[in-house]
Amino acid sequence: MKQVLNVFKIGGGVLDDEAQLHAFVREFGQVAGRKILVHGGGKGASQMLQDLGIQPQMVQGRRITDAATLDVVTMFYAGKTNKQLVAALQSAGTNALGLSGADGNVIRAIKRPVKDIDYGFVGDLPADSVDAGLLGTLLEAGLTPVLCAITHDGQGQLLNTNADTIASTVARALAARYEVELHFCFEKDGVLADINDEASVIPEIQPAQYAQLKAEGVIAAGMIPKLDNAFAALEAGVEKVVIEHALKINQLVKTVLCRS
Amino acid sequence: MKQVLNVFKIGGGVLDDEAQLHAFVREFGQVAGRKILVHGGGKGASQMLQDLGIQPQMVQGRRITDAATLDVVTMFYAGKTNKQLVAALQSAGTNALGLSGADGNVIRAIKRPVKDIDYGFVGDLPADSVDAGLLGTLLEAGLTPVLCAITHDGQGQLLNTNADTIASTVARALAARYEVELHFCFEKDGVLADINDEASVIPEIQPAQYAQLKAEGVIAAGMIPKLDNAFAALEAGVEKVVIEHALKINQLVKTVLCRS
User: Fold this and answer.
1) How far is residue A141's CA from residue B223's CA, in Å, rounded to a whole number?
2) Which residue in B has a C-alpha nearest to residue A71's C-alpha?
3) What is the predicted ipTM?
């Protein structure tokens, strides 16, 4: 029987507020067994770009990662956020080990091809981009990998990569070895049936229901890429995907996405 | 018989110049077998402190690591320098994995006690601060740990730590498992008999000779802490300490320090 592996993704909100971050770290420490944490950047990186006088580069309304921006987000995500998280996790008894995709070549990305827009130093993840063997070695040594949203191309170039994509690609890559549960943590208790009612969490969604909820316009537009991504992970062998509040991971309120 | 482990320490100069950094990475890739790289910060961090308007805090002529400074050096060392080095090493065929001391609790430091001066968030390393087991696991998995000069106290606090001290403490901690050779790389070809003659490299120094060279004033004042540190590492079981040029690690010109 395969062991359970919990992959958690956290983003802004919890990363931007020290008290929330420590509350999350305590909750995360109570999750038993093998686990991986993937984190985005939070608002701090944008503030720092501003403090350094680096103007946001926008093309057709999309943010571009130029060389100066990549430098700052690498420092912020892989340096500050990752190391502060790891130190906090260590203090709470989780043997965390921070990684970018370059470390141990654990996530090798492809610089996004230029079509209409040149996104700059942004990395996309092909299906075989994750070294599941290395993550398995670390997990079996009792370590908790903490992945930031920086990858590399194997040719010496670091790349900025979406943290949701990293979480689902890692979850999929490990599905052959573990019974993987993928947790997208955010600032709401789950997927809401009514965007104006925080208590309207849908406890479980199956693919047919999801199609119907989308057709009915129940799912908020911003949630659709996240949920499409989540159902694709289920299709690819991930056992369960959970959408939940970052500070309530050990509570029952959440949305569980199921394969059928 | 114990396997050989080479521990290299690099600092400013090679880190501040991209062409030199890539030249070092190529040379380092040619060093066979198990190896660890420890790096300092270079001048970039000081420039960034200036760009962010963070004034250097000095007490009695010594630089203090206050909270804002720690933030920046963590970003710079653990984020930018470490990840750029790791990505460059990967591209040159070395399976590098970057670590701060917090990662996997690999180096646990003690915040420097306040005596005459409060140095702020600076970490000193007791003899048992390094997790040799974890470094051994990574080395035996074919990885090359790349350690930056940031450690932690195990209570959630990151600490700025001298990179020479990290290199020698790591070398000492691994001396029971490996035949360790510790390499301090800098911008000269070795210890010079005549500070004004770059060709006057002393090929080998034994402890008795070192005492004599110090007494005669031959050793430059700035080299004394480095060499004291190096001979202490030899006393503690490190097999060999080498002082050499960062871009000539595979050449014969160097100073080898021997136990006797």
Assistant:
1) 40
2) B80
3) 0.95
| Residue recorded with tokens 């199921």 | A258
Cα distance between residue A49 and residue A52, in whole Å: 5
Give chain A's length: 260
Contacts of B31 (CB under 8 A, 6+ apart): B6, B8, B249, B250
Domain A4-188 classification at class level: alpha beta
Residues A120 and A118: their CA atoms lie apart, in Å, by 5
Class of domain B4-185: alpha beta
Residues near A82 by beta carbon (within 8 Å), at least 6 away in sequence? A39, A98, A100, A146, A148, B78, B79
Assess contact for B176 and B187: CB atoms under 8 A. no
pLDDT tens for B204-218 read 999 999 999 999 988
Question: Is B12 one of the annotated binding-site residues?
Answer: no
Nearest Cα neighbor of A161 from A150, A169, A153 is A150
Q: How far is A94 from chain B (nearest CA, A)?
A: 9
Domain ranges of chain B: 4-185
Residues sharing a CB contact under 8 Å with residue A102, sequence separation 6 or more, in sequence order? A150, A151, A152, A158, B83, B86, B87, B90, B96, B98
- Angle, alpha carbons A174-A176-A180 (nearest 5°): 55
State the nearest Cα–Cα gap between A98 and chain B, in angstroms.
6
- E strands, B175-233, in order: 179-186, 204-205
Q: Is A134 exposed, middle or buried (0-12, 13-18, 19+ CB in 10 A)?
A: buried
DSSP class of B81: I
Coil, strand or helix at B116: coil
User: Tokens in use for B223?
Assistant: 């080299």
pLDDT at B43: 87
CB contact under 8 A, A103 and B91: no
Longest C-alpha distance within chain B, in Å?
A: 54
| pLDDT computed for residue A255 by the predictor | 97
Which amino acid, residue B104? G
As a whole number, mean pLDDT of residues A77-104 equals: 98
A41 annotated to a ligand binding site = yes
β B179-186/B204-205 pair status: unpaired
Q: Which residues contact B208 (CB under 8 A, 6 or more apart)?
A: none
Q: How far is CA A9 from the centre of its chain?
A: 4
SS3 at position B170: helix
Answer whether B65's CB lies under 8 Å from B30's CB: no
